[in-house]
Amino acid sequence: MIINPVELQNKIRIKEKSRKAGAYFHYPFCPQKCPYCHFYSFSGGKEEQDAWLATIQEEISLLAGELAGLIEIDTVYFGGGTPSSLAPEEIELLLLSLKKNFSSDVKEVTLEFNPENPLEKLQDFKQAGINRLSLGAQSFSDKILESLGRLHSAGDIFESVSQARRAGLTNINLDLMIGLPGEEVSIFRANLQGIKAVQPEHLAVYMLEEIEEVPFKKNWEKNPVPEDDLATTYQKYQDSLWEMNYQQYEISNYARPGYFCQHNLKYWEYKPVVGFGPSAASHLGFVRWQNVPDLKLWSEAITNGQMHLAEYLILSPEAALKEKLMSGLRLAAGINWELIRQEFPKLDFRPYEARIHELTARGSLEKAGPNIRIKASQFLIANSILSELLF
Ligand code: SF4
Question: Which of 19, 75, 158, 228 is the most exposed place for a label (fewest CB within 10 A)?
């Protein structure tokens, strides 16, 4: 669907008291496709990469024309793809372009970095404005890394973190995948030893939830991991990371005190985020949209002053409430029920409250002061708890 940004602006009513918003850049290029990947990414040539860089700057000024008065950018996230393939000057250029077009007071700028990328760039990324590094580590086991088709070794992770520390980066996340076929106890130990050695401030420890039509699916189907094993693995990480002074603040995310990811919190707290680049998703007020996952279609529309969207939704209050509960209850702190009620004064909360009562009696939800939350012991079945609550 092709729309004019003016139409988008007309539909947005910001209710949030704060106008603070995140900006997300999707860089869709990777040197090689990982067999489990379902993100929009491919190995583009120089011409496509240059087109991306030119178009995304046009997209920033196009959207700013309609949205700049509504928001103030305070977090930026470069995701992908492999955005660490960008040159530091290109990162600087995009940050400058944001600053010129939107009012901003940026506190956190994250770059996803793959450990096989040249480490000498880290110093320049820091100087370009990056202050948080998210390392696509995935595992400290070379055997697992090989089965995932990754281009780096466990040794590269250690070197990346050392170099990042030397460059002065003091906020580092490691992405780790767990619950994979062939994951023995030795792999759990290797991961814990790796975490102890590099002491990241933040960890995203996640499981492959949906295996779509990707090459890794065959491996997954040949060696399915029993649900009980998944639950045991998940809990082992929960317990060990807690002992290592990491706070689990979301189903898959752990951080040392003061290091929650401010950008990702915007998704869970349902705060505004504007996405740039093909396939990037945005959410402002009661409107949600996603750019088409196609470099050519995305860039043709932007060049014509339009937006090519794969999804464009104007949410009813009921739908917005459901989305808000669905994302907010992923947080360990849960959601403040009274505030939610005040935000949607016209909705009938009785059916939700009856289900909350039931789920609390059953031990799936609990009250914590003014908040309602999923019990940490039930995180692994959060999806089924949420569907009982919401549908
Ligand atoms: S590096 Fe990330 S985005 Fe690129 S193919 Fe692998 S999983 Fe996908």
Answer: 228
Residues 325, 184, single domain; the answer is: no
- Between CA 330 and CA 296 the distance in angstroms is 35
Ligand 1 centroid to residue 32 C-alpha, Å: 8
Residue 224 is classified by DSSP as P
Question: Are 123 and 213 in the same domain?
Answer: yes
What lines the ligand 1 site, CB under 6 Å? 30, 33-34, 37, 39, 41, 80-82, 114, 136
pLDDT of residue 211: 62
Residue 193 tokens read as 């030893």
| pTM metric for this prediction | 0.95
pLDDT tens-place string over residues 268-319:
999 999 999 999 999 998 899 999 999 999 999 999 999 999 999 999 999 9
Q: What is the mean pLDDT of residues 85-103?
A: 97
The residue contributing the CA closest to ligand 1 atom 7 is 37
Range of the domain at 29: 2-268
Same domain for 264 and 335, yes or no, is no
Helices (H), the chain: 5-11, 46-67, 88-101, 121-128, 142-147, 154-166, 185-198, 216-222, 227-243, 262-268, 295-303, 317-328, 337-343, 350-361, 382-390
